[in-house]
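Problem 12. The chain below contains 155 residues. Write out its predicted structure in token notation.
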Amino acid sequence: MDKKYIQTLYRYNQWANAKILDTAARLSPELFTAEAEYPHGYLRGVLTHILFAEWIWRNRWEGVSPTTRLKPDDFPTFDSLRTRWYEEEGKLMKFVEQVTDEQLNSPFQYTSTEGVKYENILGEAMAHVANHGTQHRSEAAIILTELGIPPAIST
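Solution.
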């Protein structure tokens, strides 16, 4: 795993997240917070899940093992979620820009929110988190499309 690959992957992740967030910003507050029969609830739940994953893993990569989770109720409005998202994105991209090839190919240890200790290779974990975001952005895109405002995503 090399730094250039990870940087490219996370720049794409940042771009794709922005496309989903830009589309979600067009929702009414009622639709943003509505509940539904999706694995993470409705759009707020899916977006919170993506943010949570990026937040907890970045913390773990930096040697901190959070014991709490981000929850949809932490974000009563879209603007509150978007503000937190961009704060986290700045921290994540700073980490991505500073990581070295040596670090990417080395193990790191962390403790899960359930108290279980793990060890992973940093670059593999970083690739996993970016791919995780792809899965859940596709769920968000389906929800937005069902609501009549499909994301305008093109490369």
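Discussion. The CA atoms of residues 30 and 146 lie 15 Å apart. Students who got a different answer should revisit the alignment rule from Section 12.3.
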